[in-house]
Amino acid sequence: MTLLNVVALTCEYRKNPLGIDIKRPRISWKIESDRRGTMQKAYQLQVTANDRDFTTTTWDTGVIQSDESIHIEYGGPELKPRTRYFYRVKIWDNFDRVSEWSETAWWETGLLTSDEWKAEWITPDPDGIDPLSEPAFLLRKEFTLKTGMTSARIYGTGVGLYELYLNGERVGDELLAPGWTSYHKRLQYQTYDVTEQLQNGSNAIGVMLADGWYKGNLVREDNRNIYGDRRAAFFQLHVTYSDGTEEVIVTDNTWKASTGPILFSEIYHGETYDARLEKEGWTLPNFNDQGWIGTIVQVMPITQMVSQENVPTRVTEVLKPIDTFVTPAGDTILDMGQNMVGRIRLKVKAPVGTRIVLKHAEVIDKDGNIYFGNLKFAKQTVEYITKGEGIEIYAPHFTFQGFRYVKVQGYPGQENGLPLENFIGEVIHSDMERTGEFECSDPLVNRLQQNIVWGQRGNFLDVPTDCPQRSERLGWTADAQVFIPTALFNYNGGPFFTKWLRDLKADQLPDGNVPFVIPNVEGGKGSAAWGDAATIIPWTIYQTYGDKRVLAEQFDSMKAWVEYIRRQGKNEYLWNTGFHFGDWLALDAKENSFVGATARDFIATVFYAHSTRILRDAAEVLGKSGEVKEYSFLLDKIIEQFNLEFVSPSGRLVSPTQTAHVIALMFDMVDGKAKERTAYELNQLLIQNDYHLNTGFVGTPYISLALTKGGYHETAVKLLMKDDFPSWLYQVKKGATTVWEHWDSIKQDGSFWSDQMNSFNHYAYGSIGNWMYRVVAGIDMDTAVPAYKKIKIQPNFAGISFTQAKAAFESMYGRILSSWNLTNETVEIEVEIPVNTTAEILLPKANLADVLEGNKPLVSGDIHSYLEIKEGVRLTVGSGFYHFRYRNESGLRPSFTEDTPIIDFLDYMEAVAVLEKFAPGITKPPAIFSTKARSLKELAELQEVNLTVDKVKAIIGELKTLALEAVLVE
Ligand code: RAM
After folding, report:
1. What are the tens digits of pLDDT across the range 308-359?
2. Which residue, by CA, sits nearest to atom 3 of ligand 1?
3. Is ligand 1 within 6 A of the CB of residue 638?
């Protein structure tokens, strides 16, 4: 029996999306096959709005000869609103096989035009409740339904944030709805299937409304009501009966309003909840709302309603606290063990009126006290006042905190220790599909990878933010653009960035300039490497997912940005005017400055070229030949002028910094001899600095890539492996569980960088993740064909001091795996290539005759396209799983020193045993150190053993013998 299945059907990146308003949704699928080298030859896609059996179809493509299996655009008759469309796919492959029909999937349309909205915006009567008052509003309405209901949907939204209830239960599990967009220009509505939550006869609906981003405190201390000063709700319930009739219930001035238990709730500051003020049963029918006031209809300044574009924000994981302790200052602290973003859910039994206060912070200072300094004016405080009736459970509704530690006050009996089991941490972020993993045999590098992922989780909360804890939390453009290549490995960011880019476009200024933050609530604009998010982000989405529509949608915005820059320079081809953040937070900045030493016009002109190149390439993809010509010409001119202005005739850069060299190489600003020299000088700069970087936001994202590209890969590896200041692993060794804003957020003496701007959860420097996936593990693509349709697998272990690395990435076509494992004797490489793609694989330093694939000589197997080249063996393969094994040539063997990870010798316990032999008298039980020591030197330090050079040599000799024996036994 053969296997050929069409699986994982998605529509607009999502499985069975409810309530979308896209006129021509795009369908993608993946294929499973039991044969290597499977390609799709043809497909058939059927869509029906009528019945799941497809007895009649709305659209049937017939058999299409094509290998396209992603983003197939619906091409049938115009879609009807509020309609579920079922679809299924069948494919033919290159082995003349045909699959069965896939399982049926669906999408459902929402409201497609503005005249379908019957609801009115309502808010409590201002004569009854002051619209500017702090407590969250409750809005309610009762209604009666006939029998015979078959389905029901709610479409709706609110400003600032809402939670929806029906008959005593919450509707949906999304948090912080409707999310954050440039509200006046675009407001998202959500769709809920509430068929199961309604009943014949009496029903009640309730909405809770809080300030959120719309009108809460944002950016500056005195800054409120940015988008408006009234909270309001806008909902529409459609009920369908078996006889085909329909009933619509909407928000209007028959709804009643009140305040309730939430006395205060804001993004930065937390929430105050007085359980004594709960309105028991307010979302149930027959609730007595006599004392409630009326509502009024209000006109809202909103131009466009759009259906939910991003994936919802949800609780995605629950953490248990790992510890509780009392600080020298006398505070009782809960330690979550991880710098997380979300909220605490607590359980308590206490007399009525007990006030429990939770204050959230990221770090403990060097004296052991909890540190709130870096939060600036964000209060991050949650207060709960008990009603005193049995066990009470509470988590705040309309806020989130960035924290690892919580100072707890007022919890009953806390003097005798906090009961850890009564607290959990709920991790909250945009619920994107996890698509990537990177792992290696070095525990510190693994921790770095985890920190990067945690940084992404904490800062992908509906918009890509710089930080999640202090009074900022804004959609900083540069942070997003430098991190996006890494982000898209870890998680699927298609819907997330599609939404954010639309806000970028909406908030872009008429002259093409781009605000510093999106949505634009801050006011600043311009700056090289910040505004370039306008070109870099759509291009990265296109490359990763093959999403042409994003490019088409954003093209005018991309072009406007480049044209904006073009008008800035004193010379059309240089960008040498205006404000720039420069190489933000680089260590070569002057004392008390945030701006690194690299000349700002140098950086600006490089990004001018980079954006122009992207624009040219996008024009090419979209078939805009006029623009291709225009921007090719412009790009050549910029590069020419750049070389005149910033590169000496003998190829020396005028800005002698690491970052200048990095970006000149990375963005192909120099060529020939100048390129060689730039790479050489960059390497020299690092050698002079004992392999430490001093780059900031502009240089750091590319330093490793530029070194590898320039032929100095081993230097890039050395940078990664450094664990003293400044380096990525320095942070890890200082106990970081997320990535910091500054290289020295915690300084070597344990003190902190200034209170003014010090986030412990900032993803910009996490941008090294891209290089770890792409270069170290070796999952890359041929950029001429997007979406990893042509994969490049290039494992890269040259100079690396760990012995294993593995990365997997769930591409639009399916899972890609590249994994290598090095012993003294052998190199093992595992590769997985999804159906309907091909891959070029490089087996570094392999001799063709020596390579086994699946335990058989490669040359006699079923891979026919291989070539011995200088770098090793290069193969071209189709889909399937491959296992290669070949002799580890001496050049690749890890050399053993006292810094070599223990794991390279053998296992930890054996290393301890050897150490004991040479240093008798060790009394400490070794097991307690097992998670801490990674090298022989560290192990010796932990055991307080004094190692002389001779002893080290002897120990290493012993370990090597053991390691070799182990290999032989194997
Ligand atoms: C601070 C943050 C942010 C950066 C701006 C320029 O707000 O460091 O990440 O982009 O400055």
Report:
1. 999 999 999 999 999 999 999 999 999 999 999 999 999 999 999 999 999 9
2. 466
3. no
CA–CA dist 443, 124 (Å, integer)? 56
Determine how many CB atoms are found less than 10 A away from the CB of residue 26: 17
pTM of the model: 0.92
End-to-end CA distance of the chain: 36
**According to the 3-state scheme, what is the secondary structure of 867-902?**
EEECCEEEEEECCEEEEEEEECCHHHCCCCCCCCEH
Look at strands 40-48 and 84-93 and give their pairing.
antiparallel
The domains of the chain, with CATH numbers, are 4-109 (2.60.40.10), 117-307 (2.60.120.260), 313-430 (2.60.120.260), 436-775 (1.50.10.10), 779-887 (2.60.420.10), 906-965 (no CATH)
Is the Cβ atom of 478 under 6 angstroms away from ligand 1? yes
Among this protein's residues, is 853 annotated catalytic? no
Ligand 1 and 476: CB distance under 6 A: yes
SS3 assignment, position 822: strand
Cα atoms found within 13 Å of the Cα of residue 355, Cβ hemisphere only: 7
Establish whether 741 is a catalytic residue.
Answer: yes
Residue 683: count of CB within 10 angstroms of its CB? 19
List, as one string, the DSSP characters of 574-605.
Answer: ----S----SBT-TTSPTT-SB-SS-HHHHHH
Give the pLDDT confidence of 391-436 residue by residue, as tens digits: 999 999 999 999 999 999 999 999 999 999 999 999 999 999 999 9
Q: In the structure encoding, which two tokens stand for residue 246, read together?
A: 């329909």
- State the alpha helices, DSSP H only, in 401-518: 443-459, 477-490, 494-507
